[in-house]
Amino acid sequence: LPLHLTLTASGVAVVAATMLTHPIDVVKVRLQLANQGAAGADAFSVSRFVRMWPSLYRAEGLPVFYAGIRSGAVRSASYGAARIGLCEPLEQRTGSKTGSALAVGVFATVLGNPFEVLKVRLQARPAEAAKGEFSAMLAMVREGGVASLFRGFQWAAARSSVLTASQVVPYAYGKRVLQPVLRTDGLPLHVAASLAAGVVTCTVTAPLDVMKTHVMSSAGGGSRSEIVARLRQEGPLFFFKGWLANYVRIG
Fold first, then answer.
1. H runs (alpha helix) in the chain
2. Sign of CA dihedral 64, 68, 70, 73
3. Cα–chain-centroid distance for residue 9?
4. Nearest to residue 211, comparing CAs of 151, 168, 166?
5. How far is CA 20 from CA 72, 73, 119, 160, 190, in A?
6. Distance of CA 45 to CAs 39, 240, 244, Å?
7. Mind giving me the DSSP string for 113-139?
């Protein structure tokens, strides 16, 4: 396909996926920010993940699951189109699958970061979400200047690069390993390879994703002392909070 069609198809696909999975993303963000000293449950517990849905609904109503969905869609249209649509063309030019994935991940983050910051902020702050995206963005800029639109960029860029590489490479490897076992090149092989790649992707990006969420959602940009205090309180599993929700969303 020509590049413009590849970018358009990628953008449309990612926006559609975002609209469907946004409620899960909200639950993931809330689990990452939960301050209950139970990092293991927030990371991997099925019951904790399931209980979070009625808990949020009772406390904040149905709209909570769609907080930030418009900014999420705009972010997906720009970030998703670049991250997915440019990966293969760049790989064909450079000959490096991993290098192309890393480079495209950084470029995509440059395009989508302002809308990612707004999305995470609205998911974390229901009172601001009720006022709408435009009002929230103005408040964010008044509060922290234009620089606030690029809050957490380093964590988002690192996550995006690792995410792209850890999806593309493990998926291709998984297909190669699983094909002799499943003896098919059809849908079962693609599903199995995707599920396997999802485990790798969610695991290697989890610490970066947790840091990104904390920095983007914090009015002060997520101070180092705050992160260190949470790490001491909850242990290393702090960096994997929301893992299960993330796997359900992208696995």
1. 3-33, 39-44, 46-60, 69-75, 81-85, 87-94, 97-124, 126-129, 133-144, 153-182, 187-217, 224-234, 243-250
2. negative
3. 20
4. 151
5. 11, 11, 15, 20, 21
6. 10, 11, 7
7. HHHHHHHHHHHH-HHHHTT-HHHHHHH
Tell me the two tokens of residue 222: 């997520």
Q: How many CB atoms lie within 10 A of CB 90?
A: 17
φ, ψ of residue 108 in degrees (nearest 5) = -65, -35
| pLDDT at residue number 57 | 96
Q: How many residues does the chain have?
A: 251
What gap in Å lies between CA 226 and CA 243, rounded to an integer? 21
- Which residue in this structure is represented by tokens 């910051």? 117
Please list the rounded mean pLDDT of every run of 10 residues in the chain (251 residues): 79 89 96 83 94 96 93 88 82 83 86 93 85 87 89 91 85 90 86 93 96 85 75 91 95 71
Helix 97-124 vs helix 133-144: crossing angle, to nearest 10: 100
CB neighbours of residue 87 within 10 Å: 23
